[in-house]
Amino acid sequence: MNYYSLNHNSPKTNFKNAVISGIAPDRGLYFPEKISPISTDFFENIEKYSHHEIAFEVIKQFVGDEIPEEKLKDIISETIFFDFPLVKIDENCASLELFHGPTMAFKDVGAKFMAKCLEYFNENNNEEVTVLVATSGDTGGAVANGFLGTKGVNVVILYPSGKVSDIQEKQLTTLGQNITALEVNGVFDDCQEMVKTAFLDAEIARKLTSANSINVARWLPQMFYYFYAFKTLKSLNKELVFSVPSGNFGNICAGIMAQKLGLPIKHFVAATNINDTVPNYLIDGKYAPKPSKPTISNAMDVGNPSNFIRIQELFENNFADLKTAFSSFSFTDDETREAMKKIYTNSNYITDPHGAVGYLGLQKYGLKTTEFGVFLETAHPVKFLEVVENTLSIKVTIPEQIQKIMNKEKVAKKISSYQELKEYLTS
Ligand SMILES: *Cc1c(COP(=O)(O)O)cnc(C)c1O
Fold it and tell me: What's the domain range around 311?
């Protein structure tokens, strides 16, 4: 399968090179040249397919013949080894829990799939690759876990000192092996700036790759969630509306891609916190990115969502079509806390702040009686322990997999400048 750059100033490339380089030479995001709908027979019989079989049907055209079928099936089994349950919240809506993976964040799926693809492509390469990633919290843990023990790949994660939760820090700093955590004296923007500088530094860029959602191997497997939800909800015979808590808009963009493959989804809601670049765009058609503001749903504190350009491409840059199939609403932290309380009181269900923003998206959209709403619960409430416990006045039980790492010793190297990062990468 070939991919082109959305900046239209680089040659086309195949899946392998798109995965290895992450971004096109002209700094554009890669986009598949062709999207072919899956047969209607597949959708009619989807309940007969296992989660692994569904994933294979969904992803195979985007990989093409660059990974042998059997190998691709192995990669899928190594990626999808936990469940994606739907929990009913009320008569017309449910929470799609995406947090049952190893780091309890939905990013586990994309991170593991990408790691396994990169490992395969790197099999006969003697030179090691370094995956360099900046994190404000959840990405780092998922990438660290996904790439742990991957042959030929070193992972270097930059995180802002004192700005990630205890659990998130432990997830980054206790794994060892091929994972190194660099604790940056600064904020997330400083980490991201250092990573960007490294990618533009001709002396080291050649050996680096990125593992954020601009990488096609992290972005595309997120389509699976929507197919799994459809499989479960098909018998309701209702029109499905998905509300996706959105930051970089990779997850929701994968949902729209799933719809392109023929998945019957009526409408998408991109729910954001006060970082409202996309909701504003839908009002007046002017895309005006701005610096991000901190919120309690901090994995969505993004002022210039990198994947939004892919969504525009999926709608062939037709603003009217986009507005028909897609809404976007923004919510304050107070509204988010109120929603968490309401869901807990009415349905005895604990949401994390991101899931609560997704729930609010469905409320604002206003479901009709012919529709059923699904909001994506993108992280386990324990990942945002303080906010959840303080808002709901409860104690959250810490799951075993998290408990285990809390007792491990943190290992991180402190850095304060790009020069120190470069020295580390070249040493
Ligand atoms: C990354 C993340 C998001 C945002 O996902 P995007 O694909 O960047 O829109 C939402 N919730 C949680 C918990 C996350 O970690």
Answer: 84-92+220-397
